[in-house]
Amino acid sequence: MKTEVEIGVGALSPDDVVAVARHGAKVQLTEASLSAIADSRAVIDALVDDEMPHYGVSTGFGALATKQIPVELRSQLQRSLIRSHAASSGAEVDREVVRGLMLNRISTLATGRTGVRPGTVQAYLSMLNAGITPVVGEYGSLGCSGDLAPLSHCALALMGEGQVRNQDGELLPAAEALAAAGLEPVELREKEGLALINGTDGMLGMLILAAHDLHRLLALADLAAGMSVEGLLGTDSVFAEDLHALRPHPGQQVSAANLRRILAGSALIAEHRSEGSFTRVQDAYSLRCAPQVHGAARATLSHVESVAGYELASAVDNPVVTLDGRVESNGNFHGAPVGYALDFLAIAVADVASMSERRTDRFLDTSRNHGLNAFLADDPGVDSGHMIAQYTQAGIVSELKRLAAPASVDSIPSSAMQEDHVSMGWAAGLKLRRALDGLTRVLAIEILTAARAMDFRDGGVAQSKGSAATTAARALIREQVPGPGTDRYLAPEIEAVRRLVDDGSLLDAVNAALAEPLL
């Protein structure tokens, strides 16, 4: 993971955003970007005394854009803009979301298309590097004219006002945190307030973080499916390369190849096949069609990453300073492209989780689990085994289906009908984050259940009949969670596996057992 990220006039990479937002990488500006920033500021400075109105320089904002502002009140205009727009409410947004938002805004400022002063950008960057994170509430952005309220809280902190958290997570007044870091508050000049808040930066940051996490979760969904195929005495023949070549969706090809690697060398599957005891002509859809569903999710992810790439390469502001020095109003702040992508991912997440829950349920039903104890209980009736773990999955999946309802189809007009169609992309981003948390938990329960089923099949990891990949997964799980026995307090065991899924250690353990890593 990068520890330093350089921002030039070109686009950041998604890995840059993850490194800064989640892992605290430091950021610096290139000389080329500082030169571009200075050039565009010269354009704005030339308009300060112009008698013609220029939006964001000498006028009010939104529906108040017809109001001409005297020169002596224009610094107050910028302060008033930030103070009035820092109007979020609700639960505090995660630190990584705010840091991603700040980085993306700095990236747009560094393009030299916004008209801010170089010193203002440097001050914003210094605040980010110092680990000062403004407090932002979950409500306030409609995803059009950008993520106005969230970005305004960040600009407010830059002015030395509002509440922030320092590097250690301590809640402080912004002025106090800036002083402790050796930083001075910024007095905003013409156009700067608007340039600091008019972008899709928050929703974009959430999209990039979600896409990063979903790569890991889709590989683990393949692992979960493979463990379930093995534990339910299914067949791996449906994952054959020539069968999937008949429907050459790239994501499906990746998932099928993953499943072949996961199940390669499984003595249990080979034993089951050689004994001639396989009487089912076909496995259930939740086993047989995993590559098709997981592959469709990968195709969605691929599309979403292309959207994120375009957005990272954008200079989103209104008005913008064009390359030939004009200051032009535009609609590039509209969050529809990002909002749609966030909603699209939420659909895929819900469906992958839904299929996982169906596989788990099969382990618990004696009419479908091929010889396992009811609910994988040690002594069914006395013990309930994983009965309620599946309830937990079902509750999460039900919630994920609600979260899959798109936010971007909604729009409530604002600013006296001047801003009469909005994207709701910020809301789409927040619900996607909740959906990914749900998928993580659903997969953890399936993997925990499949590991327990395999312990019933072969007596434990020490004499595992599983493949190298599934045995590695079970071995790591057994370091955290004991094998089958009488009922125990189950919530901590689910949480232990959730952590293994979430922090990447389970995927790492499986990949270490394979010649080629899962994709």
From TrEMBL:
One term of GO molecular function: histidine ammonia-lyase activity
Gene3D superfamilies listed in its UniProt record: Fumarase/aspartase (Central domain), Fumarase/aspartase (N-terminal domain)
UniProt lineage: Bacteria, Bacillati, Actinomycetota, Actinomycetes, Micrococcales
Listed name of the protein: Histidine ammonia-lyase
Family: Belongs to the PAL/histidase family.
Chief location bin: cytoplasm
Catalytic activity, reaction form: L-histidine = trans-urocanate + NH4(+)
Subcellular location: Cytoplasm
Keyword Protein transport: no
Domain of life: Bacteria
Keywords recorded for this protein, A-Z: Histidine metabolism, Lyase
EC number, UniProt record: 4.3.1.3
InterPro entries noted in UniProt: Aromatic_Lyase, Fumarase/histidase_N, HutH, L-Aspartase-like, Phe/His_NH3-lyase_AS
NCBIfam families named among the record's database cross-references: hutH, PRK09367.1
UniProt pathway annotation: Amino-acid degradation; L-histidine degradation into L-glutamate; N-formimidoyl-L-glutamate from L-histidine: step 1/3
